[in-house]
């Protein structure tokens, strides 16, 4: 998530402030429209740092699963963005990785649940 969000921020900044890159087409004449892109990728970066540094606890795996579920679902719902900007490869990779990490967090949750003694 850290790598993808950093790349996303770079593309967002290039498209909104310098009219360069795949987002330039969408942001032509309305660079302020990138606020949502920049906020989303910035928040994904912050959450990525938090998840990277977090202890392996149920609550953090729930957060990780939900964050990746949200981001992967958003990719599906706005798939036309990847089509219009010619970034289908990035869409396939990032959406697949979100699915992979949802699965990984769910597996970790299951493993942690198995370790907790029943009362």
TrEMBL record:
The keyword Membrane applies. The chain crosses the membrane at residues 29-52, 59-82, 88-112. It comes from Sinorhizobium glycinis. This is Uncharacterized protein. Keywords: Membrane, Transmembrane, Transmembrane helix.
């Amino acid at each position: 998530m850290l790598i993808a969000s950093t790349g996303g921020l770079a593309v967002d900044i290039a498209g909104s402030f310098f009219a360069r890159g795949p987002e330039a087409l969408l942001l032509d004449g309305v660079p302020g429209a990138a606020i949502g892109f920049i906020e989303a990728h910035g928040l994904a970066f912050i959450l990525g740092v938090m998840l990277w540094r977090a202890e392996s606890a149920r609550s953090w795996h729930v957060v990780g699963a939900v964050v990746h579920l949200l981001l992967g679902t958003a990719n599906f719902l706005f798939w036309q963005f990847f089509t219009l900007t010619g970034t289908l490869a990035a869409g396939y990779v990032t959406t697949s990785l979100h699915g992979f990490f949802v699965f990984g967090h769910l597996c970790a949750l299951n493993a942690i649940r198995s370790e907790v003694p029943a009362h």
